[in-house]
Amino acid sequence: MTKAQPASKPAEIPRVALHEQVAERLRAMLVEGQIKPGAKLNERELCELLSVSRTPLREAIKLLAAEGLVELLPNRGAVAACMDESDIISTFEVLASLEGLSGELAAQRVTDEELDEIRALHYEMMACFARKNLAGYYELNARIHAAINAAAKNPVLSQVYRSVNARAHPMRFHTNQDPNKWQHAAREHGEMLEALAAHDAPRLRALLMAHLHSKRDTVLDQMRRGALGAATK
After folding, report:
1. What is the pLDDT of residues 116-163, one digit of tens each?
2. Would the pTM of this model clear 0.85, i.e. be above it?
């Protein structure tokens, strides 16, 4: 009679995977404003909320600090990053150029499979828009912009883009809280998809740059009206 084999132990989640999962949760909290700009990241409270120990939490915080979403301050610990008007203008100035170049190259190099994927993401995003699901819309929106960047097939551009774009995530999310701005942004995405499908590189570049300039202006307007909370240094 064959001996019963002992039940195998459940595989432990690698520590690197755990801290990346924690970083993803924290990133969403920062982007969606659950943690306000300038607020201290209380380790004890976050450990309890996320059901993790301090080690993966601290590794996650370091990762977000590298992205520019968190600041590590002497004697204060980690705080959610703040941006003043100069920071916003500088960030969106660079980001608009990077997005424009991504669009230009993507229109020239996108494959049929990549185009189909971006089109599917767009339809999912518009379904979220119809349901007024801002969090779902934003997630798909970010994936579309990342997919256009990936379709440009320039690793150096992608590396720089990810670094700069990470800083702008919270601001880009909040620009769509105004229904009129949100509708305008959704319409712009439809035009971007048309330009990409037509392989119209100059038009897609211009559309993406205008899209980012519009985001910048909305963020600055919200900041001046105090709609972004403690968004200044």
Report:
1. 999 999 999 999 999 999 889 989 999 999 999 999 999 999 999 988
2. no
| 70-73/77-80 β-pairing | antiparallel
The letter for the amino acid at 44 is R
Domain 85-224: CATH superfamily is: GntR ligand-binding domain-like (1.20.120.530)
Nearest alpha carbon to residue 105 among 198, 212, 201, 207: 201
**C-alpha separations of 31 from 21, 38, 97, 115 in Å:** 15, 13, 22, 28
> What are the start and end residues of each CATH 1.10.10.10 domain in the chain?
15-80
Residues of the chain with CATH 1.20.120.530: 85-224
Question: What's the chain's Rg over C-alpha atoms?
Answer: 20
- Write out residues in the chain with pLDDT < 50, as ranges: 1-2, 4-8, 10-11, 13, 15, 229-233
Q: Rounded to an integer, what is the distance from CA 49 to the centroid of its chain?
A: 22
Domain 15-80 coded CATH 1.10.10.10? yes
